[in-house]
Amino acid sequence: MDNSEKLALGLSGLLLVLFFGAIMYAAVAKDIDVPTCITDMDPFVTDTLFQTGPDTYELQMVARMWAFQPSTVRLPVGSTVDLYVTSQDIIHGFKVEKHNVNLMAIPGAINYMRVTFNEPGEYMYACHEFCGAAHHTMAGRFIIEEDIDEPEMDGGSL
Amino acid sequence: MGDYTFRFSKSEKRLVAVLIIIPMVLLFIGVYGGLMQTLFRAGIIQSDPFVGGDYYKGLTFHGVLNAIVFTTFFAVAFGNALIPYSLKKNLNVKVAWTSGILMLVGSVMAAIVILMGEATVLYTFYPPLKAHPLFYIGLTLLVVGSWVASANWVPMYLQWRKENEGKKTPLAVVGMFTTFIVWFIATLAVAVEILFMLLPWSLGWVDEINVMLARTLFWFFGHPLVYFWLLPAYVMYYVFMPKLAGGKLYSDMAGRLVFMMFIVFSVPVGTHHQYMDPAISSQWKLLHGIFTFAVALPSLITAFTLAASLEHAGKLKGAKGLFGWMWKLPYFKKENWFFAYLITGLIIFIFGGIGGIINASYQMNTVIHNTAWVPGHFHLTVAGPVMLAFLGGSLYLVGQFLNKTIRLKTWAMIAPYIYTIGLLIMSYGLKIGGLMGMPRRTNTGASYANPDSVLYQADWMPYIDLTVIGGSIMFVGIVIYIISFFTTVFSKSNGPEEDAVVTFPISEPLHDEPSTWLRNFKPYIIIAIILIVLSYTPVIYDVLQATYGGSLPFSPDSPVPLR
Lengths: 158, 563
Prior knowledge:
Strand order of the largest sheet of chain A: 7-6-9-10-4-11
Shape of chain A: globular
Largest sheet of chain A: 6 strands, mixed
Structural class of chain A: alpha+beta
CATH superfamily of the largest domain in chain A: Cupredoxins -  blue copper proteins
Strand content of chain A: 35-45%
Strand content of chain B: under 5%
Largest sheet of chain B: 2 strands, parallel
Number of strands of chain A: 11
Number of helices of chain A: 1
Radius of gyration of chain A: 20 Å
Helix content of chain B: 55-70%
Structural class of chain B: mainly alpha
Distance between the termini of chain B: 61 Å
Order of helices and strands of chain B: HHHHHHEHHHHHHHHEH
Largest interface: A-B, 61 and 77 residues
Radius of gyration of chain B: 23 Å
Order of helices and strands of chain A: HEEEEEEEEEEE
CATH class of the largest domain in chain A: Mainly Beta
Oligomer: heterodimer
Number of helices of chain B: 15
Shape of chain B: globular
C-alpha cells in the first residue's frame, strides 16, 4: 500500500466512524430509536383510542385491505400518542407525513412507536407497502386542533 | 484490444450467446414495464395498453425481469466467459447447458404466470399475498440453474490451483467467485423460504405461514442480492476499465481486499431493510446497521482505487494539474464505446452510494423507508452502474462470442449518456417525492396524483412529472442500445467460426503486491459464516418469540382469504 492509499483508507474509515457516532448520539442522547420487539401486549383485532394521562393517548390501529381503522383521528394540540399498529390480513405500511413515524403493519405481530403532535394541522398517513388492487386508496389522517375537548375517531369499529 | 486470446468451443460460444440474447428480450419487456409505470403513476394511463393489467402487474414484471432474471443470467454468462478465459480451461459443456436450460425454463415459467396476472406479488413476493405455484417453482429453477453454473467452475479452479502453485489467482476469477459465494450463501435463505414455506403453502399442503419469518428470510437474501448485482460490475471496473481508459489498475491488492470484504460483510446486514418492522429488537437492528457501515468501506476503497487508476491513465496522456486527467479520458470515442458504459455507471454510483449510506443510517431510515425515495435510490445503483455495466458487457460478449463487429458504435456509445441523464432526472423526482411522503409501490395516478380524488396531493405533482420525463429519456436510451445490440446480433459474422478467438481487455496492475493473506477464500468464508450466525440467531429468535398465529393466503384482489 502506498501513502495515498493509506490516507484514503484512513479517511474512509474515519468518515464511517463519524457517521456511526452520529447514529449513536441520536439513539443515546436524543432517544430517537427504531421500532423494537413488543411482547407485553395482547394481540388486538379492533381499533381503540383511550386517554392514558393529561396529554397522552393510546391508539391501537388495525390495517386491513384497504383501509386503516381508524381512518380519521382528531386530537388536541400537544397530544402524545402511543401508537400500536397491526394488520388483520396482509402486510401494510404506515407513515405519518411530516412526522418520524414509519411502521410496517404485519399480521401476527404488533408494532409500536410514540409520536407527539405539537402543531395544529392535518397529517396524512398513507399505506406504503403494496397490499393489493386498491392499495393506492388506503390512507387516513390525524387532525390536530387547538380547541377540542374530546378526542374522536372515525371510520373505525367503534 | 487485449493481447491474450482464448479459443472457446462452438458449444460454449453458443451457450454464452443464448444466455445473453434471450434475457435481453425479457429485459426489454421489463424496461417497457418501467416506462408504463411512470405513466401510471402520473395518471396518464389507467391500464397497460399492450400487455393489459394494472400498475401492480407491470411493477411485478418490471422488478422480476429486470432485477432478478436479467441480472442472474448476465452474471452466469459473464462467469462462463471470463472464468474459462482467465484459467485457460474449457467449460464442461454438459453441465453448463444443463444450468442454462434450468434457468431459461424457470424464468419463462415465472414470466408467463406474471404476464397472465397470476403472480402479482412484486419481486419481493411477501406472503400472505400468494402467487401461482409456478412462480415459486420458476424462481427456484432459476436459482438452482445458477448454482449448477457456478459449481461447474469449482473443479476448473481447483485444477488450476494445482497446476499453478504459488501464483496469484487472476483478479477476474477472484471477483467472479466472490460474486457466486455471496450468491450461494444468500440464496440458501430464500431457498428455505420458498421450498419449506411458500411453495407448500401455495400448493395448499399447509394452511398458514409465519409472515415475519418469511420476510426475514427474504431480507437475509435481499441485501446480499444487491452485491450479487454489483460485483460483476466491480469486476468490469477493476479488470477492464483501467485498460479501456489507457492505463493500469492502481492497486491489485485493493481489488482483492475489496472482494474479500464483500464475502465477509455482504450477508449479516439484511435487517437494515427491516428497521421499521415489528418483532425484531432494536439492538439487533443496530448490529446489522454497524455491519452495513462495514460493507460501505470496500465501496469507498473502490472509489479511491478507480479514481486513481483513471488519474494514472489521464496522466499517461499528458494531463497536468490536480484534475486535468478528468478531461483526458475517452468519454466519447466510438471505438471505445465500452468505456462509456463504465464511466457513466461510476458517476451515477456516487449518488447511489451516498443514498445507500443514508438508508442504512438507522433512525434516518424512518424518514425514507418505503417512500418513493427508495426506488429513487436503487435505480441509482442496480438500474445505474449495474445495468449499464451489464448492458456494455452484454454487447461486448455477443460481439466476441458470435464473432461479430459491433454495429452502430456511435449509437452504442451515446446510449449510456442518454440513459444517465434520464435516470438522474427520474431518481431526483422519486427521491424528493419520497422526502415529501410519497409512498413507493403505489399507483399514485389513481389517487394521490388524480385531481378528482380526495387524496390528491398537489405538491407531489412536479416530482411525479419529473419521473415521467426522466423515465421517457431512459427508455429512449435503452431503445438506442437495443437497436445497436440486435443490429450486431443479426449482422454477418467476421469469417468462419473455427478461427474465431475471444479476448477481454484485462488491465495490468500498477502496484502489484504479493498480498499472500488475500489469496485464499476459506478464512473469509469462515468469518462470514461466524458473523451470519452471530447476527441472525437473535433476529430469528425474536421473530419466533414475538409473533403469534399464522396467515392464510390472500389474492391481491380481495380482502377475503383464499381458503
